[in-house]
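Holo prediction — pyridoxal-5'-phosphate.
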Amino acid sequence: MSKYKIINKSIHNLFTSTTFQPRCVFTFVLIMNSKYKRNQQFNNRQLFFSYLAQTSDAPIALEMKKAEGIYITDINDKKYIDGISGFSVNNIGHSHPDVVKAVQEQAASYMHLIVYGEFIQSPQVAYAKLITDQLPDSLNCVYFTNSGTEATEGAMKLAKRATNRNKIISFKNAYHGSTQGSLSIMGDEYWRNAFRPLLPGIYHEEYNNYKAVAQIDEETACIIMEVVQAEAGIIPANKEWLQAIRNKCTETGTLLVFDEIQSGFGRTGSLWAFEQYNIIPDVLLLGKALGGGMPLGAFIASHTLMNKLTDNPVLGHITTFGGHPVSCAAGKAGLEVLLKNNYLSKVKDHEKILVERIQHPSIKAKRHCGLWMAIEFDSFETNQQVAKRCIENGLITDWFLFAPHCLRIAPPLTITTEELVILCQIVIESIEAKD
Ligand SMILES: Cc1ncc(COP(=O)(O)O)c(C=O)c1O
């Protein structure tokens, strides 16, 4: 059986106390689709399974009612530590009062006005200025999108338009989003195969392998990569290798695109992971924490590069809601909170606490970078048991897309040392309980 069949099979049994079993779901959907449903009163769980498109047959399906700081509370008043920050979105915790205020004020002034790029909207302008102030001089022009995957799409289009080439290099076990262009560069055939035909001219290389450097040539539009591979289970790039990639890109006129959608906004201990490498990309992709809890993505490059999207054809990338003023206001407030409180200064010390306290003979390996850890077990089944116990014990965790045997730890950067110690205790107790 392939690892994904095992996952699908095992996932049926995951969180059984909180979810429907698949057969029950099917029966229930039939009932809900019947003529009786209009006269019935259903609870949110039933409505969730009946009316919302499902992405797996065993979602976590906890019903939450409030989230504040590092905690999420369910409808039974059970409080959970958010150990994954909504997949690295809530780096400053949930519903920070400054972000809530910014959202309320902006919504009261104006929400959507017009398609991206036409009116001068102060939240977009102010946020673009604040972000580029935190970046090297060459990354001085921001294109705001709705999401991370749209930022990836924009960068791929920009690279093709700027270089007049169409070869793109990406990496095995890389995730850059789920739309068709991003899916084409996704680094795993299992996830791509059902959606072919995808983009031609894509080369998937081994991460940290010099064959990738050799593959970059005068026909390559861009190489898209994460500085720390997230969904592979926290794999940082080797410094010399990344420098060799930068050099070859410069030599061949290939654009180097860094995807910091998950690693950005302090997750690795510096605002951007690439700062730890002294290497500057030509294009930077941001998302997730960029919106302070609201949907927002961005691709960022130099003015010279970005101007390629203004002619031949004009409107080289069009988005209706990209850079929504409320999202930009929220994102700016969120970044100000992160910088003002200097949360970054605590990340490396907190990383040490994670490393010291998360120890157990069942753990095969730990990979970490800042407040971001993959705890590796012998199998997906073991990991699944530990994750289930963690949730029972009040800690939200999950696995990684390409490393299902690894437990994901990525709490908000605002977590206190005392709270982090509790998080570690819950992980260890959950490992011990499964033995
Ligand atoms: C590294 C990376 N790139 C891109 C994306 C896609 O972002 P979005 O889900 O906002 O489209 C993700 C999302 O998980 C990601 O982790």
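READOUT: Residues 97-340 form a domain with the Aspartate Aminotransferase; domain 2 fold (CATH 3.40.640.10).
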